[in-house]
Amino acid sequence: MHVSRFFLLSTWLLLFSVQLAMVPSAVSATDIKGDVVAAEKAWQLIDAGALILDVRSAEEYAEGHLEHSVNIPHTEIDQIIREIGENHDRSVVLYCRSGRRADGTLEALGKLGYTAIFNGTGLEAMEATRPPQE
């Protein structure tokens, strides 16, 4: 009887392990840099005509970026202001690698009176939530 219990337990553990190995390794929201909920909202703004600003370095931008985005590093606030223009209510989506630099840029622009700036967070989150291309 003791051997039977051991055999059953071993078999169950083996089957459970095999089933776990067969589960697809989908990328979860916790594996993505950035906030997918914010990124989804960012796409709505982009679809409505928002300017897309990538505030990462030129080197990061060269490695990959969103189509139609303009690259101006977060440290170049004067250049960002020139790109946005005089309309302080212009809709702008910022993104970087994780959302941190975009958040700092959003805060700086908010202090200057810009009212329609949105942090789309990270490039990975933006790419993961990109609406299907038509």
Structure description:
It is built from six helices and four strands; from the N terminus they run ααβαβαβαβα. The model is unreliable at 11-27 (pLDDT under 50). It has a four-stranded parallel β-sheet, sandwiched between helices. It has one domain: Rhodanese-like domain (Oxidized Rhodanese, domain 1), CATH 3.40.250.10. The N and C termini lie far apart (64 Å). The protein has 134 residues and is of the alpha/beta class. It has helices spanning 2-22, 36-47, 58-63, 77-84, 100-111, 123-128; strands at residues 51-54, 70-71, 92-96, 117-122.
Class from secondary-structure proportions: alpha/beta
Number of self-contained structural domains: 1
* End-to-end separation: 64 Å
Sheet having the most strands: 4 strands, parallel
Elements, N to C (H/E)? HHEHEHEHEH
Number of strands: 4
- The CATH class is Alpha Beta
In summary, what is this structure?
The protein has 134 residues and is an alpha/beta fold.
Write the layout of secondary structure elements.
Layout: H1 2-22, H2 36-47, E1 51-54, H3 58-63, E2 70-71, H4 77-84, E3 92-96, H5 100-111, E4 117-122, H6 123-128
Parallel strand pairs: 1-2, 1-3, 3-4
